[in-house]
Model the fold of this input.
Amino acid sequence: MTFGTIFAQEGTKADEKDATYEKIVKRGYIVLGTSPDYAPYEFQTTSNGKSKDVGMDISIAKDIADDLGVKLKIKNMDFDSLLVALQTGKVDMVLSGMNPSAARRKSVDFSDIYYKGGQSIIINKKDSRIYKDKSSFENKKIAAQTGSIQYNLAKKQIKGATVSGIEKGTDLILALQTNKVDGVVMEKPTAEAYASNNSGIKVINGGFELNDDETSTAVAMPKNSPVLQKKINGTIAKINSKNLIPQYLKEAGTYLKGNTANTSMLHYWKYFAMGVGYTILISLVGVIFGFITGTLLALLRLSNSKILRMISTAYVEFVRGTPLMVQLMFVYFGLGLFVNLPALTAGMIAVSLNSGAYIAEVIRGGINSVDGGQLEAAESLGLNKKDRMRYVIMPQALKNIWPALGNEFISLIKESSIVSIIGVTDLIYQLKIVQSDTYRGVAPIVVAMILYFIMTYSLSRLLKFYERKFN
Done:
């Protein structure tokens, strides 16, 4: 059956083009982008020892996939990365409690509205007498999710307030409970979900002046996706006609109760174990390929060729002069326009390339630290340049650079946590998920700190053992 036939059957103009829809039908699955830390819209729960995404948005996404006749694949990442992922083809649609604001409509298309809520403010219960609505927060500290409608509302409508953008809902609640902020602006259903599972906080009516876009939730999709938009709107119409939204919210509430039935960190040991495994894998790959890249760059910088020296110097200076987060986003989203790299692969590439630049300088310094007499002695023995470097210079340089290399390797374990922003399930990513599932802010952080310390301390002991061997 041709695409033209499919379009005709569905009441769509045969000459109407939609590359996104054609791609989805051809490969047999649709990719959903979401940030699973926003109950009851989307969050994670444990079923039969495995983590899965649940919530109202996930139920709607499943309905959309079923109506399209394809499978649903879910890609998790930070909220403020979702629209970038949509624009670069990493995902086909976004359901993440997203409001279809005018600014967002310039970049992506939206479906019809599938849910209307409101905007609330969460406060500590002990402050109930102080805060009543948004006017109570003038010249106070308030927080909202980065890149959200709530953040913009707080900036525009709360006079004199210092507004902080924080990526994760769990971190917002933690900031409130530790008195870093006085209140948190959050969508009403999500605010109520947090309050129902935390006796120390309370939800108040924000009293914001709202238009339809600021109280509504819709499905985001790439620009110029008319067929996909019609299909999704058809699913939303069916959901509304059957009044399924209350049922989906009720199911989400059941999962929430299950998550909070046992919030011990031991219960979530598999999450942390998986996070440690991915952290070690990314760090190990980064170390190996970083060392290879660094060695090559160091040798190029010490070569007699001016062009090779310039290339090596330019690479090292550029990588060291830009943040790893920006490099990661470029590899995953920028290169993603040409090559569809999985998040884990993109993370390992970015970490390896970044590490290589720093290791290059360490190795270059180690080579330059070898006494010049050693080179002269090697030349007097008739060794060529390759053999001089291999048998005389590098063995001595390695001894000199080993402590600095060790520090770079240890730093790599900690710095690799940045890959969590694109949805790689490393230790930091799993920490956020456990916080979201259990509504406990501090305990998962303590567990992650201990696990990072164990990894870095073990590596430190191993490096010192080999350092003694060299001596």
Remarks:
- The CA atoms of residues 282 and 348 lie 6 Å apart.
- Residues 265-470 form a domain with the MetI-like fold fold (CATH 1.10.3720.10).
- The chain has three domains: 3-116+216-259, 119-209, 265-470.
- Residues 1-12 have pLDDT under 50 and may be disordered.
